[in-house]
Amino acid sequence: MHRLIVLTFAFVTAICPVAPALARSMEPGDAAAVRIAAPAVVSISTWKLTAPDPTGKPRRRVKFYGSGFIVDPAGIIVTNKHVIDGAFDIKVLFNDGSVAPAKALAASPLTDLALLKVNVGHPLPTLAWGHSGALQVGDPVLTIGNQLDWGTSVSAGIVSGLNRNLQDSPFDSYIQTDATINHGNSGGPLIDRDGKVIGVDTALFNPDQNGGFIGIGFAIPSSTAEYVTKRLLDPAHPLPGWLGFNLQDMTGELSAAFGAPQAAGALISAVDPSGPASKVGLRPGDILKQLNGKPVNDSRAFMRLIAEAPVGTSVRLTVWRDGKEQEVTALVAAWPNYMPHGGIMSSQAAAKMMAMEPDPGVKLAAISDADRKRYGLSPSVSGILITSVDPVSEANELGIRAGSVIIAIKGVSVTTPDDVLRAIKEAHEQGRPYLAVLIQSQTGTQWISFSIGADS
């Protein structure tokens, strides 16, 4: 199974032992495209809770980062659904350095796309949709996004592949690119030489879960993203169509096994007993060859056509079964359990989450003689020792490691672990966005700002 890593950045240092992949160099036409697109690209920061721990460890409030782009001057922003899933506070940083709170407007339950809304009192620059259907392998592309929370970054590459299946949804048709993307790029645009969006950066492949980019990234095609965006913006948009079966692509081996004349079409692997497909007698092992007389060569294209079919209409399916073709007509039903606003937290729940104290993700202890020997601390160093750092934490991203010593907070020396915890608690109660902490490590002594409040 390939290891795919969604690109939200959660204060995880992306260290990859594999040599970095080399994409194409920037060319003169790229700069012009960036000047068109960059003003409409945004960085997104959210507060979320860490995932439930099987050992019962309490969940912590952690800051995550992603990207997005503006598609409506009134403040509509496209991003990935996984960027905002479970978020109880969302901020958007614009290209000019200004910051605004954002509201989760809608999220697609079937694709990794979501919409945000900001109100800034003036029209915003926007990006136009391009035509992903016209892309060919080898075409030049650019990615723009908040890589590793360094701010808006640009990279150049080519289209490495098309119609990639990441098994993320029944409709996958990802664009593969070698344009450099990393954690934090989620939701950012993949653009063409005209500065138009031809994809939404969503995932990267790396055998190392904490690894960075090795030359294999994926973006949702603009044809899908534009279609989903328009549906999400329309409160009365029709529900996606559903026939109630699971499909897989045909292969030469399966074609031979079923006695089909060619390795084309979509093979039914499961049928929902309550769905329209079951009612017209479709069963596992049937091979779907055509939809309304149109040949369809892969399972995901078939599912996309069904999803786009109006609910309540009939579709004609050409089926290969027992060595011959036959036709059946099925009535398209609405996708069951469709929740267009799934993943969006209520304001009451969000307020409750923000009331939780943030956890920097470190364990603290007084400095012992054994610690001084282990970490090479001189007798003159005083403060509180950091004994471990959670890999999913702000401290880890800031480069803090076990053996570092907290000397002072806000200019006041700390002598016990409770001094540190008390300072975090007080900063949170005062609604302060950051806490200034003086830390000594092997690289020297420096002030570091920990995120505390919603305004950070």
- The pLDDT mean sits at 82
Termini Cα gap: 38 Å
Instruction: Give a count of the beta strands, DSSP E runs of length 2 or more.
Output: 28
Q: Given this structure, which CATH class of the largest domain is correct?
A: Mainly Beta
Please estimate the helix content: 10-25%
Q: What is the total number of structural domains?
A: 3
Task: Please report which band the strand proportion falls in: under 5%, 5-15%, 15-25%, 25-35%, 35-45% or over 45%.
Answer: 25-35%
Overall structural class, as computed from helix and strand content, comes to: alpha+beta
* Total DSSP helices: 10
What is the CATH topology of the largest domain?
Answer: Thrombin, subunit H
Strand order of the largest sheet: 6-5-2-3-4-8-7
* Biggest beta-sheet profile: 7 strands, antiparallel
Describe this structure in words.
This protein is of the alpha+beta class and 456 residues long. The protein has three domains: 4-233, Thrombin, subunit H (Beta Barrel), CATH 2.40.10; 241-334, Pdz3 Domain (Roll); 357-451, PDZ domain (Pdz3 Domain, Roll), CATH 2.30.42.10. It has ten helices and 28 strands. The chain has helices spanning 28-37, 81-84, 222-233, 252-258, 276-279, 299-308, 347-354, 369-375, 394-397, 417-429; strands at 4-6, 41-49, 61-72, 76-79, 89-93, 99-101, 103-107, 114-117, 140-146, 152-164, 174-177, 189-191, 197-205, 217-221, 241-242, 245-249, 266-271, 287-291, 294-295, 314-321, 324-331, 333-334, 362-366, 384-389, 405-409, 412-413, 434-441, 444-451. The strands form five sheets. Strands 6-5-2-3-4-8-7 form a seven-stranded antiparallel beta sheet. The two termini are 38 Å apart. The model is unreliable at 8-21 (pLDDT under 50).
